[in-house]
TrEMBL record:
Pfam families in the record: CMD (PF02627)
Protein name per the record: Carboxymuconolactone decarboxylase family protein
Residue span(s) of domain Carboxymuconolactone decarboxylase-like: 42-112
Example GO molecular function: peroxiredoxin activity
Domain of life: Bacteria
SUPFAM superfamilies named among the record's database cross-references: AhpD-like
Length: 126
C-alpha cells in the first residue's frame, strides 16, 4: 500500500513538471531509510490540497509559486515551477510579468534570476 502511494506521488510530480525532481527522490529515500515515510505521505497530502486542488487553477498556481521562489532566490525550485507553469500553458510574457513583480518585492537580484531561468527554460532543448 505504501509503495503504491509513493508511486502515485512520483507520478504526480512527473505529470506536473515532466520529471521527478531530485529533491523529491532524496526526500523519499531518506524517509524510507529512517522509517519516516509517513512524513512524506503527510506532506504530499497537504501539497495535493493546496497545489493541485487550488482554486487559482494549475497555471496561475505555478506562476505564483515561480514568483515566490524567484523572490526568495531559490533557483532550483523556481526552475521546477517555471517548467510546470510552461507545461500548464504559461507564456514567456506571463513568466516575465511574474519576474517583473518579483523585482518590486525583492529587487534586481530576483529579477535577474528570473530572467535567467526564463531564458533557460524557454530555449529549445537539445
Amino acid at each position: 500500500m505504501e509503495e503504491e502511494k509513493l508511486k502515485e506521488i512520483q507520478d504526480r510530480y512527473i505529470d506536473l513538471t515532466g520529471a521527478l525532481p531530485s529533491s523529491i527522490e532524496l526526500r523519499i529515500a531518506l524517509c524510507k531509510a529512517t522509517n519516516r515515510i509517513n512524513t512524506v505521505l503527510a506532506i504530499e497530502d497537504l501539497r495535493q490540497v493546496v497545489i493541485n486542488e487550488n482554486p487559482l487553477g494549475h497555471k496561475i498556481s505555478q506562476l505564483v509559486q515561480f514568483g515566490q521562489l524567484v523572490a526568495l532566490g531559490e533557483r532550483d525550485s523556481a526552475k521546477i515551477h517555471a517548467r510546470a507553469a510552461i507545461k500548464a500553458g504559461a507564456s514567456t510574457t506571463e513568466l516575465l510579468g511574474v519576474v517583473e513583480l518579483a523585482l518590486i518585492t525583492s529587487g534586481m537580484p530576483a529579477y535577474s534570476l528570473g530572467v535567467e531561468i526564463i531564458s533557460e527554460e524557454t530555449q529549445p532543448r537539445q
